[in-house]
């Protein structure tokens, strides 16, 4: 089934994002990464039952497959340390040679793909609120920098995730997110002004836009705002396309992956 036929509102909003069709189905790509030549994809629930071993073939024939056992933390490993089951516990990977496909999964948390157009190295991270609060993305950026990347040239695509309108969290969670963004951004007032949080009718809770928080964190550590693309799709509000833990309370995920260009 063609997802572009299922929900006009959903697909009319996808500026700078493109659905790619293949014989196996449709997956979402970021125009930003595509223009730089990076093979990647954000897959939907319609690929249920097909994991990275199969999905990698739709992105790049012959790419090796690397994935972590995600634990909602901030550990980022070299891809060569995540080659077979049992998968190592981590929530991010950074390529250390060419032809590696890096994979993360989620069902409301943000899949984040990072690419260095100079070296061809890439990173894939699973960024829920715990990962953002513990600065998994700056950690991945630092590892790419150690491989020769320049922060101001990195390209980032943040895929489908729970939207700020629908993500209710305790205020203590927002406080941890604020602290991860630096002292000048830690206050609730500043978080509200930037759109990272908004009021919630329930006492002691607020709404959190986790992608905006991750965006702010990356810009604050030296990445360029115009080289970070945020997908507008919400996993909670698009049940035909995405699994959502918040919506269904069912353990099911969709996968996202990117292939490194770096020479071996």
Overall pLDDT metric: 92
Give the H and E element order. HEEHEHEEEEEEHHEEHHEEHEHE
Number of helices: 9
Low-confidence stretches: 6-12
The CATH superfamily bears the name: CNF1/YfiH-like putative cysteine hydrolases
> What is the radius of gyration computed over CA atoms, rounded to a whole number of angstroms?
17 Å
What is the CATH C-level name? Alpha Beta
Q: In order across it, which strands form the biggest sheet?
A: 5-6-9-8-10-14
Q: What distance lies between the first and last C-alpha atoms, to the nearest angstrom? A: 38 Å
Number of domains: 1
Note down, in words, how this protein is organized.
The chain has a 6-stranded mixed sheet with strand order 5-6-9-8-10-14. Strands 3-15-7-4 form a 4-stranded mixed sheet. The chain is built from 9 helices and 15 strands. The protein has a single domain (3-167, 209-259), classed as CNF1/YfiH-like putative cysteine hydrolases. Helix content is 25%, strand content 25%. The termini are far apart. It has 264 residues and is an alpha+beta fold.
